[in-house]
Specification:
The complex is a heterodimer.
Chain A: H1 2-6, E1 18-22, H2 26-30, H3 33-46, E2 53-57, E3 74-76, E4 81-83, H4 91-100, E5 110-112, E6 115-117, H5 124-127, H6 145-150, H7 155-163, H8 166-176, H9 188-197, E7 204-209, H10 218-225, H11 227-241, E8 245-250, H12 255-270, E9 286-291, H13 301-308, E10 332-336, H14 337-341, H15 343-349, H16 351-355, E11 365-372, E12 378-383, H17 388-395, E13 405-410, E14 416-419, H18 429-434, E15 443-448, H19 453-467, H20 473-490, H21 496-512, H22 516-520, H23 523-531, H24 533-546
Parallel strand pairs in A: 1-2, 7-8, 7-10, 8-9, 11-15
Antiparallel strand pairs in A: 1-3, 3-4, 5-6, 11-12, 13-14, 13-15
Chain B: H1 10-15, H2 23-34, H3 39-49, H4 53-62, E1 74-79, H5 82-86, H6 89-100, E2 113-118, E3 130-132, E4 135-137, H7 145-150
Parallel strand pairs in B: 1-2
Antiparallel strand pairs in B: 1-3, 3-4
The chains are: A alpha/beta, B alpha+beta.
């Protein structure tokens, strides 16, 4: 029965012997990737090489191949040679000299510290990375299920359906030490076990792809570049907890992620990886995409559930937790995109392998979206426990324009600011919590000496004040008042009493807000107050002297 | 603006009629088709889905993507994410206001552009960015704003 489906798959027949991968990420496209692709195709036609070579756009996402600031980029798949900052006029030479005669075009290679780099994996931006969640992004064409299958796709689903009980899978995920990558870091296996234990007739799996933290874009990149890995992981989660229906809740700001995901779901349905009796067994699973409508609070799980139900996305008190009473009152597991992207590798390579990566309590890798005042920006996946110094100075090439590092903002509006004293701190859930920051979703915005930390705090309060859903008073009115004080300080009209009020207010909002949005909204202020208090005080002293 | 033929929305309502929690997908698709969600459309949706008008208005006013005002031919979203902010999004916004002679949330007189501020578009490595319709323009400076507008 299932074999019938597999015949529908186009097992590589149309693939050329060799490939040149051209990144079609948003960054590369805006730098001229489409023109480069057209030029390659033109050369292939001219030299009659169309059967030997396929010029393939790999991905259409911002995270894409990775080093966005080197775009447009191309990689010769056979030997992994990396060409960055490509221009149309370079293409004929690459085709003739490299593809036809096998000689790398030295003068077009990327130069780092006086050395020409040949292999993509050896460029500074990639060398220290360990890609698990991003294993396929930038390598496969997200719109071709065949390419996912070639890389062992849907084998993990097959293996668990044939050989493992739901409890065995839960044990495996628990042993791996995987924790939620959306921010809170809750153990994934434990979450699954709660929903598994519930005996309800209907259960749901939701993938939280409402990646709202400004500065974070790894979930977008995974959905755009490797949607099947999320579909497979959700089917596995469905089998484990006993759900036959899943939803992916994607934010409306990500049209391409929605498109690629919908294409992938159709393909998975046509080939029998979604739908009834998957792999010929009793397990059935369907998946639906729901698009958000521009409300940051919907990343909070109870608000997200309300939104899927067609209501205003306002959070509700916990307990009950969604694992007991979630979507339409049924047990529901909500996992973040990056968390799900780790499931298939754990099943395929075993919990011990995953558990051996990272620090004592934070296992595996974390993807960081590195942006701001650094030389090279993009997605960086490194083992938990990597230091900020390694990410900023070794991978991202240091601060741009010869300026000094001042601070890194991590975790968006719920996160904190890390000053240079902590550059050597190992980044994991525990050590960041100790200094009042969070891993959060992994947005990492690097700031140089020119940035005012008080203004950064104001920026985030402006954000949370606007995004507060209005349900509970501390968040609705408190964030507004905090913003007022910050604006007063910046306008040079504050006095030292205002600073006292600001701190007091921050503590009250943290303790009394209904959901995570409000509880964490004061973090950017508290953390800048801790590390950059002098900037606040200076503005206030100046104001007091003038007035 | 041509009058809206409510009957032409039936295919959307039918497509989602049996789905649980169908209000938001229905509003999305209608807005995609006619650009906005005026009261008459809300009333039609209310009658067809059996959802109270107050609930529909509650949803539309809660989510920033839904609008009850018609939009211009192109929508410009100026990204106000952290990376864009650090990299000078305010300058881009100022220049756009100057060039178009409108504030955010407004539409130009010739009905060509509507300008909005958006949340992080996730293209932080090209900051600062704007999105015109579905197309992202990155690595902007205030100087190249007019050039980009000319393309539309």
């Amino acid at each position: 029965m299932f074999q019938k489906y597999l015949k529908n798959i186009n097992w590589g027949v149309k693939m050329a012997k060799n490939e040149i991968l051209i990144c079609a990420g948003t960054a590369c496209v805006s730098a001229g990737a489409e023109e480069i692709k057209a030029k390659f195709e033109e050369e292939f036609r001219k030299l009659n090489m169309t059967e030997d070579y396929e010029c393939k756009t790999v991905i259409s996402s911002t995270g894409c191949v990775g080093p966005c600031s080197l775009g447009p980029v191309a990689i010769v798949k056979a030997d992994n040679t990396f060409y960055g900052h490509l221009k149309s006029e370079n293409v004929p030479k690459i085709v003739k000299q490299h593809l036809q005669q096998g000689k790398i075009v030295e003068e077009l290679l990327t130069e780092e510290d006086g050395e020409k780099i040949e292999d993509f994996k050896d460029i500074r931006f990639m060398k220290k990375q360990k890609r698990i969640a991003l294993r396929n992004t930038g390598i496969i064409d997200p719109n071709k299920i065949e390419e996912y299958l070639e890389r062992n796709g849907y084998q993990a689903l097959k293996n668990i359906l044939k050989q493992m009980t739901p409890l065995e899978v839960i044990e495996e995920i628990k042993d791996s030490g995987l924790r939620g990558r959306g921010g809170a870091g809750f153990p994934t296996g434990l979450k699954w076990s709660f929903a598994h234990q519930n005996k309800a007739d209907q259960k749901y799996i939701i993938c939280n792809a409402d990646e709202g933290d400004p500065g974070a874009f790894m979930d977008r990149s995974i959905l755009e570049g490797d949607p099947h890995s999320i579909i497979e992981a959700m089917a596995i989660a469905g089998y484990v907890i006993g759900a036959d229906q899943g939803f992916v809740y994607v934010r409306a700001e990500y049209p391409l992620a929605v498109k690629n995901l919908k294409i992938a779901i159709k393909q998975a349905e046509n080939t029998g990886f979604l739908g009834s009796n998957i792999y010929g067994g009793d397990f059935s699973f369907n998946l639906e995409v729901r698009v958000g409508a521009g409300a940051f609070v919907c990343g909070e799980e109870t608000a997200l559930i309300a939104s899927i139900e067609g209501k205003r996305g306002q959070p509700s008190t916990k307990p009950p937790y969604p694992a007991n009473s979630g979507l339409w009152g049924k047990p529901t597991v909500i996992n973040n995109v990056e968390t799900l992207a780790n499931i298939v590798p754990i099943i395929n390579q075993g919990s011990q392998w995953f558990n051996s990566i990272g620090t004592e309590k934070s296992k595996g890798t974390k993807v960081f979206a590195v942006a701001g005042d650094v030389k090279e920006t993009g997605l960086v996946e490194v083992p938990m426990g990597t230091t900020l110094r390694e990410i900023i100075f070794e991978i991202a090439g240091g601060i741009a324009d010869g300026k000094e590092f001042k601070a890194a903002q991590i975790g968006g509006p719920s996160g904190g600011t890390i000053p240079k004293e902590y550059l050597d701190l190992k980044i994991d859930y525990e050590s960041l919590a100790e200094i009042g920051a969070i891993v959060g979703s992994g947005g990492l915005v690097i700031m140089d000496e020119d940035n005012s930390m008080v203004d950064v705090a104001r920026f985030f309060l402006d954000f949370t004040e606007d995004e507060s859903c209005g349900k509970c008073t501390p968040c609705r009115i408190g964030t507004k008042r905090m913003l007022d004080i910050l604006e007063k300080i910046l306008a040079g009209k504050a006095n030292s009493d205002d600073l006292v009020k600001l701190e007091k207010l921050a503590k009250v909002i943290q303790e009394t807000s209904l959901c995570g949005l409000g509880q964490t909204a004061p973090n950017p202020v508290l953390s800048t107050l801790e590390f950059f208090r002098d900037e606040y005080e200076e503005l206030i002293t100046d104001a007091e002297e003038v007035n | 603006m041509a009058a809206i033929k409510l009957g032409e929305l039936d295919h959307i309502l039918e497509k989602h009629s049996s789905k649980k929690g169908n209000l938001i997908p229905v509003l999305h698709e209608i807005q995609e088709e006619i650009g906005y969600l005026p009261t008459e459309v809300q009333r039609y949706v209310s009658q067809n889905l059996g959802v109270a008008m107050s609930k529909i208005y509650g949803v539309i006013s809660f989510y920033s993507f839904f609008t009850t005002e018609p939009k211009g031919e192109h929508t410009i979203g100026v990204c106000m994410g952290t990376a864009c902010y650090v990299k000078g999004a305010e300058d881009i916004l100022m220049r756009l206001k100057e060039e178009l002679g409108i504030e955010t949330g407004q539409t130009t007189e010739d009905n060509k552009f509507t300008m909005t501020m958006t949340r992080c578009l996730g293209t932080c490595s090209m900051a600062p960015v704007i999105m015109i319709d579905d197309q992202v323009h990155g690595n902007l400076t205030a100087e190249n704003v007019p050039e980009i507008l000319k393309k539309y």
